[in-house]
Structure formats: C-alpha cells, structure tokens
Specification:
By secondary structure, this protein is of the alpha+beta class. The protein is built from 5 helices and 8 strands. It has one domain. The longest helix is centred in the last third of the chain and has 19 residues.
Amino acid sequence: MDQSAFGDTPLSRCRFYRQVCDLPAVVDTPQLGRIIVKAGIVLALMMPAPLGQAVRTQLRQRHQEIGPIMSHPRSNRWSYLVRPDLPDDDRLFAEMWRIHVSVVRPGCDIALPSPTEHCAEFRVWVEPPCDTFRPSGLAVVDAIRVVTMRRARTHA
C-alpha cells in the first residue's frame, strides 16, 4: 500500500482509501481514528485465518489476483474485500455460515485498518489495497468451496 503521498493519519489513510482504492471510507470515530466503509460497492467475506490462508493459496494456484485481505489478530480471522456479485441467497449464506464464513452484506459497516495504535491491534492488512481491484465474491466463494471440500475428503 503505497500511500506515502498521503501521509499516515486516520484522515490521510481515509483519503487514500477513497481516492486510490475507490472505497467510500469515513473516519467513524475521530478520537479513536476508526475507519469504516459501508458494504455496498464492496462486500467482505470473513473467515478463520487458516481457511483464509488456504483460500489465498488456492487463488494463487489458479493465477487469480488476490485483492485486499485484512487480518483480525485478536479473533484470528481474515476478511477478503470483494466485488458485490454474490447473489442474495439464504442458501449461500447458510452454506458459508456452516463453515464459519460470514458474508458482510450491503449496509453493514466494514472497519478498515487505521494507522492509530489502538486500531492496529484489531485490523492489519495481509494484502493491502493499492488500487480499485477487488476479486469477484463468487470466485472467492468458489475457492472456499474447493478448500473445504478438499479438507473434508482428507478428514473422511
């Protein structure tokens, strides 16, 4: 994430997210420096970190671009920021829920990494955004399915 031209404060990081990454980010809590984006033009798929790592490997093996991934160190989860091409389908959400994957739906807040010391304890970039690219949500869901099916066969 090359944002050196923007500096590194919550406001400058927010400006980077907006101008370079096309994420409609805002500083939600100025005193804490929390940066959020409302899900809509971007969604998030949150999953346990080991699954997230395996999904990233699967996407790389397919020679697909990865896009932005956040780590939530305290909860040991990763979030993939994806394009909003997932169908509004309860069966999909239930399938993902059974394997501990949460779909952050339109209208919900997605908290992004912020440069403040307090916020850095909660969110850090695994794969930082550097432009407007976000992978297809369907492609990431497909990779999740491949990984979980492979794991199920291994443990059967």
